[in-house]
Request: fold
Amino acid sequence: MSSRTEPHPLCRATRAFRLPSILLALALALGGCGAFASTGSADDAASPTSSVAGPAGVEATAGQARPVDPPTASAIEGCTEDSCELADAVEYQHESKGLLTVVLYIDGRESVDPSEKCRIAVLADDQTVQIVPILWGNTFDLTGAELTNAFHFLSPAADATKRLFIKSPVVDGGTADGLIPMANGYFQPLDISELPEADDLDEDSDVRWGPLDDRGYYTLKVNSQTARWNGKAYALE
Reply:
């Protein structure tokens, strides 16, 4: 039986707060909807063809992810090959739910609100168990490689927090999205209380994931500033 995750109420409030789940934090708390080289930007380094968390066929430990080919669109509840465009997928070892396939896709059905067409599907044993809309994601009618380059997991998809990190299609400048594994469920959108206070932050701010730091945590780029994970929140340097 599938469970559908409703958008966070603040996400529904205004288009200005679409910035990938995480810019919402400004209204609430100052302080959020893998691994690669620690130099350069995340968007430069985190291509859709991620490095794997472990060799194929070797079970990953909890919190690890590895890239896989997306399933057929019909594997996702409500989708057909004609109505949905799949962008990227990973297998994720959930601590309580076991091995899951997490898929980024575009739901092109006319019945889907335009602000919710960018979506994340969570599959267990080939069954859809959760769908998470990314509010105000904009595909700009992208398909194929263009879509994959705009909407994909970072490389690797999980960092030392065991969360999943996503680059989502740009609307107002922000591309940082993510999922937090839940102890008594599947995932919730990135905690919106974790965005730090930043200078001149508004709906047009550039909010994106930066490179990993030397502890294995993704950094957060907010305009020209950098925030680092301190175990509870992202704090500006």
Summary: The radius of gyration is 16 Å. The helical segments are 9-13, 42-45, 144-150. The longest helix spans residues 144-150. Residues 102 and 122 are 5 Å apart (CA to CA).
